Each structure stands twice: as structure tokens, then as C-alpha cells.
Amino acid sequence: MTFKRLLFLIIVLIFCSCSNKKEQELTLRENALLEREKQFEDKEAEYDKLLKMKDSLLSISTVKDTLPKIQEWPDSLKIKWNSKMICRESNCSNYVIGDQRNEIWEFISDSTGMYTNVVSNNQIKRVFTGQYLENKIVLDSAKETSSKNKIKVSVVLDDIKKNIIKGTQTITGQDNCTAKFSVELTPSNKK
User: Fold this and answer.
1) Could you state, in order of their start, the residue ranges of all structural domains in the chain?
2) CA 77 to chain centre
């Protein structure tokens, strides 16, 4: 072999080996790139899944926010109150101006609403449904059909202080007569 041929053969071998080495590097880089693309696709799929979960949680939160909130009396009212009621005006035959009544009132709340129980002689005499508005308490009883005289009782307590609550109770009798009582509530010492 001549020197030229030998030199040509060495150059061809070097070129082939370089070309082969570059091809291997290129293949490795391509495989690494494919692996990164697969990891990116996996992360993108996980991200989409998290977004869907977030959206579903937001929709549950929205539904929860639209449910009516359970209303409760303020803690300051959730005690027993002594009531003193005096009839101030009446056109009913069974209520006389100056009549006085003393009862125990309890403000209670549960998942069905806000109520006030009126207790006399350790028995519940009347149950009012209630609302606590900005500066007043409004109580209503359904018409009482079990008693001899069908009556409707409503109360507006519009003078609310820490240890005394005042207002008016209106009783409407079956013949549409009305009797109005002044109401004064003070905290009871009994628990």
C-alpha cells in the first residue's frame, strides 16, 4: 500500500468514526428530548386534571354559598327573660286596660329557624317565629286554633339594650278586636 492510500484509509476511518459518534450523540439527544416531551405532557395532563378539580370545588362552593344560612339569635339574647306585660289599649272583651301578665321568654334557634318560647307555670304557652332585624326583633305566632278564641299574636321589640328589651305585643282576636300590651323583658336569674 502506498502512503497515499494508507492516508486516505485513515481519513475515511476517522471520518466514519466521527460521523458514527455524531450520529450516536444525535440519537441520544433526540431520545432525551423525547423523554422531556413525555414528562412535559404528563405534567400538562396533571395540570389539566388539577384545573378541573379546582373548577368542581368552586362549583361546590358556589352551591354551598347559595344555601340559606342558619340564622341564630345573638348570644346576648340566648338566656331566659322575665316578661312584664301591661295592657295599654283594648277593644276586646277579654282584655282590659291595666291587665298585667308575667311570663318567661326564651330565644332559641335551630336548623328550622329562630323561635321564642313563652313559658307560664313551667309550660310553653306560645311559640313565636322570629326575625332579628337591624334594630328590632319581630315575633309572630300563627293563629291559635286550639284555644276557644282564635287569636293572632305579634310582637315588635324595638328598644333593645343590654339588660332590658321593650316593645309592643298586639293580640288580634277572632272578631278582629285588638289588644296592645307594652312588653318589658329583663334577664331572669333562673337558668
Assistant:
1) 1-67, 75-187
2) 20
Q: For the CA atoms of 93, 94, 99, 102, what is the dihedral angle to 10 degrees?
A: -160
Q: What is the pLDDT of residues 46-80, one digit of tens each?
A: 888 888 888 777 766 555 555 555 578 888 888 89
Which tens digits make up the pLDDT trace of 73-127? 888 888 899 999 999 999 988 889 999 999 999 999 888 889 999 998 888 888 9
At the second CATH level, the architecture of 75-187 is Beta Barrel (2.40)
CB 180 within 8 Å of CB 89: yes
Nearest to residue 169, comparing CAs of 99, 81, 85, 82?
85
65: helix, strand or coil: helix
User: In the chain, which ranges are E strands?
Assistant: 80-90, 100-110, 113-120, 123-132, 137-140, 152-160, 165-172, 178-187
